[in-house]
Write a structure and sequence with these properties.
alpha+beta, Glutaredoxin, five-stranded mixed sheet, two-stranded antiparallel sheet, 11 strands
Length: 281
């Protein structure tokens, strides 16, 4: 260990501490910078917006299918519709959520019949979620169930539809924050039920659809249970693995800060000891 009492070593320590402090500040700017105001998604507020949509009439929107053919949502009136939102650039959560929804839809079709309800998946990341991108997303997920349409929208249609259905999202580093939400619309075109989570108990989908199709009552979800079901997408994307994971930058910042504090404390202690050590003349 260098002797802190030597002037050249003291200068080196001061220079190292200064460089470390600068690096820490730079790291804080690069890795700790917050998103612009209003872009973060707060789960409770997002859930409140989603629940407020229940009972709301859904407008007559025209989207486009994978071949670019216009698709009127109102043309499906008379039967329940299950609507989900994805963005095609998502490589983990959206595909996993869609595959789970497929399994749930299969169970509902077995219980109620294939033609008793429709499923619609809409891309919200514009301009990238084109009809071709939605068609490719469907193909990659292997979705071939009847009465399930993967649709693209223009900005005005997307904004109106997401507002009617209470779906909100916010851009973030490497992706989006949004509720993983499936919305059930009744045959009159009104929002009937919201379902949350990358996965959920099958009755949460089948029961409200059965109620709409047959009139059998479905269980009511309380607010605490809904909040427990909410899932926010992890937004840190690692292109090397093609997946989302925990953001370790905060831990790096904490480690760097503790290291700098430790080095500063060691230096100050060494200086204090040097000043208290009697000098031999």
């Amino acid at each position: 260990m260098p002797d802190p009492r030597r002037p050249d070593n003291t200068n080196r320590l001061l220079l190292a501490a200064a460089i470390g402090l600068v690096l820490f500040l730079v790291a804080g700017l690069l890795f700790g910078q917050e998103l612009p105001a209003g872009t973060r998604l707060e789960p409770r507020a997002a859930l409140a917006t989603s629940q407020t949509a229940v009972g709301r009439a859904v407008g007559d929107y025209t989207l486009r299918d994978g071949d670019g053919v216009p698709f009127r949502l109102a043309a499906l009136r008379g039967k329940p519709i299950v609507v989900s939102f994805i963005y095609t650039g998502c490589f983990q959560v959206c595909p996993a959520t869609t595959k789970f929804l497929e399994a749930a839809v299969k169970q509902a079709q077995r219980a109620l019949g294939e033609g008793t309800f429709h499923v619609v998946t809409v891309g919200f990341n514009l301009p990238f979620d084109t009809p071709e991108a939605m068609r490719d997303f469907r193909k990659r997920q292997g979705i071939a169930l009847p009465n399930w349409s993967f649709l693209a929208a223009d900005v005005a249609t997307r904004d109106g539809l997401t507002r009617d259905l209470g779906f909100v999202w916010a851009p973030s580093a490497g992706g989006f924050d949004h509720l993983t939400q499936a919305t059930i619309i009744d045959g009159r075109g009104r929002v009937y039920r919201q379902i949350y989570g990358e996965s959920f108990e099958l009755p949460m989908l089948v029961a409200p659809l059965r109620e709409l199709v047959t009139g059998a009552p479905a269980p009511i979800q309380d607010l605490a249970g809904l909040l427990e079901r909410v899932r926010i997408l992890c937004t840190v994307y690692d292109p090397r693995t093609g997946s989302y994971g925990l953001d370790y930058r905060l831990f790096i910042e904490i480690f760097a800060g503790l290291s700098i504090l430790g080095a500063t404390a060691w230096y100050l202690t060494a200086e204090w000891r040097r000043q208290r050590t009697p000098r031999v003349s």
